[in-house]
Amino acid sequence: MDHDPGLGALSSLGGFFVLRTGRPPHDGPPTLAEAYAARDADVEPEVYANPVIFRVRKVARSLRAPELRVAASIAHLGFTARLWSVALGSAALYGRVPDLDPRLLRWDADASAPDELWLAEVRGLPAERIGEVVREGHLVPLAAALRAQLPLSERLLWGNAASALMGAVRQIDRWAAVNGRTEVASRARARAAELFAHPTLAGTLDPATRRRRSCCLYYRLPGGGLCGDCCFDRPPGTDARPDPRS
Predict the structure, then answer these.
(1) Where is 108: in which H helix or E strand?
(2) Which of 45-59, 180-194, 197-211 has the highest mean pLDDT?
(3) Is there a contact between 15 and 89 (Cβ–Cβ < 8 Å)?
(4) What value does the CA radius of gyration of the chain take, rounded to a whole number of Å?
(5) Residue 104 contacts by C-beta under 8 Å, 6 or more apart in sequence?
(6) Counting runs of H as helices and runs of E as strands, what totals does the chain give?
(7) pTM score, whole prediction
(8) Exposed e or buried b for every residue in 110-129, given b needs 16+ CB within 10 A?
């Protein structure tokens, strides 16, 4: 990271791993600290007034979600995947993670990856602090913001976090296999194992199959179906039965 202050190497892992650095092209986007603190679910907010709810409503319109909580889960899953990807990709490639302090990270809730996140200053931290950086720095306040404004299960949100983390591990595995960088995959898996041992993520995935033990509600979208790691074998409402291991 010290030799790649712009975090350019992350782009080789895929678009979800990219993190823009420096000042955004316009001054509008708030910090994630400001986004997490906003509370106003009762009105149609402008993007910078309540970025979290703005993103949820944008996803709801795009996917024709039947309920706002379904869109909130999908939006949360995607954003959580971004945070884990950036942090785990950095730990795997550089052996360090960037300081993703919510006060340093600006978020344009109306943009898509990788242009929605901008880190004002790249400051490397020991890779061992990845849980503190992502879990305490973002997932806890993000879950609090969502649950204060929408009827969402805490279990669902931590299941999303586990699924997103496992997705980042798989993508790094694929990249490492193609590029002959087995040490990168090993570092990613070691960090992920530590993260999955934390009480917030422990038990969220089946240890044998890596299928999650909660549902992200994607099946409730028009034509949604099931995710690859869903706890259901068939969508509920079609004589589905939860996976007996869930």
Answers:
(1) none
(2) 180-194
(3) no
(4) 18
(5) 31, 119, 120, 121
(6) 7, 5
(7) 0.90
(8) beebbebbbbeebebbebeb
**Residue 173: which residues within 8 A CB-CB, separation 6 or more?**
185, 188, 189
| Helix/strand/coil percentages in the chain, nearest 5 | 50, 10, 45
Please provide the size of the chain in residues: 246
Contact 12, 175 (CB under 8 A): yes
Q: Beta 117-119 vs 20-21: how paired, if at all?
A: parallel
Exposed/middle/buried for 27, CB within 10 Å: 0-12, 13-18, 19+? exposed
Looking at residue 243, its amino acid is: D
Q: What's the mean pLDDT in 14-31?
A: 88
For residue 245, the cross-strand partners are: none
- The residue behind tokens 């204060």 is 148
- Residue 13 pLDDT: 97
130-183: per-residue pLDDT in tens?
999 999 999 999 999 999 999 999 999 999 999 999 999 999 999 999 999 999
Report how far residue 104's alpha carbon sits from residue 32's, in angstroms, rounded to the nearest whole number: 8
Query: Using CA atoms, how far apart are residues 123 and 2, in angstroms rounded to an integer?
Result: 9
Q: What angle do CA 42, 46, 47 make, to 5 degrees?
A: 115
Q: Which residues is 157 bridged to in the sheet?
A: none
Whole-number Cα distances in Å, 22 to 26, 47, 104, 123, 244: 11, 21, 10, 12, 48
Give the span between the Cα atoms of 34 and 56, in whole angstroms.
Answer: 16
Q: Can you spell out the DSSP letters for 89-104?
A: HHHHHHSEEE---TTT
